[in-house]
Specification:
Layout (H helix, E strand, L loop, with lengths): L8 H23 L2 E4 L5 E4 L6 H4 L2 E5 L5 E5 L3 H7 L23 H11 L16 H18 L8 H29 L4
Antiparallel strand pairs: 1-2, 3-4
Length: 192
């Protein structure tokens, strides 16, 4: 007795192409200058990328058995950028599942961000640049962290927007691929 295996080559190819399109669109969203609505209601044009590390870590894994699936992976803070984080004073639009109610962001990450962006420390009263000592940088990082805790992180939807756009394109392509796989399967099956 011979066994005929149902292959899903076309479905898998469509899922891989879908994942590649989502990743490409998400990387474009990160690098593009866009208007972002902050938690306090103001709008500002900015880019979401500081070092490019988040853009470089976006990957995907596709699988077909027992059902089609795609998993996307990226740096942990990408989720916070995508969904936003509620601050103590202001909430992210659409209510985020994350908040800074109890703790503020760690200063070591803010200090690293300041170093990468070459942010210079200024005097709070005069606005003039002051000595860039380790203590002054630590103080500035603490103050920036406190501001982030108060205001939160704005919702950017850099990944969800790309995913939704590509998902709208997927169903017709996927049905066509499924039809091709079934046709190929029926060609292999021989009548008894």
């Amino acid at each position: 007795m011979s066994r005929v295996v149902f292959r899903r080559n076309n479905e898998e190819a469509v899922m891989k192409a879908f994942a590649e399109r989502v990743i490409r669109a998400a990387r474009l969203n990160l690098g593009a200058t866009r208007s972002i609505r902050y938690n306090d209601g103001s709008f500002k044009r900015r880019r979401n990328v500081s070092t490019g590390k988040l853009k470089d870590t976006i990957t995907s894994v596709t699988g077909i058995a027992p059902h089609p699936a795609v998993d996307f992976f990226f740096e942990r803070y990408g989720v916070f950028l995508d969904e936003g984080v509620d601050g103590v004073k202001y909430r992210a639009p659409g209510n985020s599942r994350f908040s800074f109610r109890k703790r503020q962001p760690p200063t070591r990450f803010i200090e690293e961000w300041m170093r990468q962006r070459r942010i210079k420390v200024r005097d709070l009263k005069t606005g003039q640049f002051i000595k860039q000592s380790a203590q002054n940088k630590k103080t500035a990082a603490f103050l920036i962290g406190r501001s982030i805790k108060q205001r939160g992180i704005p919702k950017t939807e850099w990944f969800s927007q790309a995913f939704r756009q590509e998902l709208d394109k997927l169903p017709p392509e996927f049905v066509e691929a499924l039809n091709k796989d079934v046709e190929e399967f029926l060609k292999e099956v021989k009548p008894f």
